[in-house]
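Section 5: illustrative case.
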């Protein structure tokens, strides 16, 4: 029982390698995140203004 709990906590604390260019917290990842957020916001506003299309 104790080993299963310890194993589950170990699996939760595993952190992926962040040495890749996309996974880093550089300005490119913030830019991509901002573009995706604007696209989602635009989609939500469009569906609120024209609900009959969906």
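Designed sequence:
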């Amino acid at each position: 029982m104790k080993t299963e709990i310890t194993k589950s906590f170990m699996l939760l604390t595993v952190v992926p390698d962040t040495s890749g260019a996309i996974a880093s917290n550089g300005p490119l990842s913030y830019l991509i995140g901002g573009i995706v957020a604007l696209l989602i916001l635009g989609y939500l506003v469009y569906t609120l203004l024209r609900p009959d299309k969906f």
